[in-house]
Amino acid sequence: MRFHHVGMVVRSVSVANELCLERLKDDAPLVWGPVLAFQCVVAFSEKFPMIEFVVPEAESRLVTFLGGKSVLHHIAFAVEDVRRPAPFSAGDLIFDEPAPAVRGLLVNFLKPFEGLLVEVVQEPVKRVAGNPTSPGSLD
């Protein structure tokens, strides 16, 4: 397990773009993608890939839960297998199945403990060039 990112919920794509440009001095355009299971769109900063911007859809539970505020929402750890997220237990997971997310990630959340929301992230398998069946490769 290793640190992957922090997720910041912001009110809109324009707020995320402004934060990136003005505060992080990252002028690369954010590339947004949907996470349908969580009713939101997300993007990672090019310059600071450890920061994820989350913009919930109007009907998302995040809007009701957070009252429309911009907040630090979660911390995420990369694990080998999101269904068996060692050192955590599968019984600690909120959802029965992981959700597909941007950049080929699979994600799930652990049941909150003392208010801290933790996401577990499984990165896509990379293939070795010239050997499409080999894990750890580059296609």
Would you mind describing this structure in some detail?
- With 139 residues, this protein is α+β, with helices and mostly antiparallel strands.
- It has one domain (2-122): Roll (2,3-Dihydroxybiphenyl 1,2-Dioxygenase, domain 1), CATH 3.10.180.
- The protein has 2 helices and 8 strands; from the N terminus they run βαβββαββββ.
- The chain has helices at residues 13-23, 61-66; strands spanning 2-9, 33-35, 40-44, 51-56, 71-78, 99-100, 106-109, 118-122.
- It has an 8-stranded mixed beta sheet with strand order 2-3-4-1-5-8-7-6.
- Strand 2 (33-35) and strand 3 form a beta hairpin.
- The two termini are 24 Å apart.
Brief write-up:
This protein has 139 residues and is of the alpha+beta class. The protein has helices at residues 13-23, 61-66, and strands at 2-9, 33-35, 40-44, 51-56, 71-78, 99-100, 106-109, 118-122.
Q: What is this structure's SSE topology?
A:
Layout: E1 2-9, H1 13-23, E2 33-35, E3 40-44, E4 51-56, H2 61-66, E5 71-78, E6 99-100, E7 106-109, E8 118-122
Parallel strand pairs: 1-4, 5-8
Antiparallel strand pairs: 1-5, 2-3, 3-4, 6-7, 7-8
Question: Can you give keywords for this protein?
Answer:
alpha+beta; 2,3-Dihydroxybiphenyl 1,2-Dioxygenase, domain 1; 8-stranded mixed sheet; 12% helix; globular
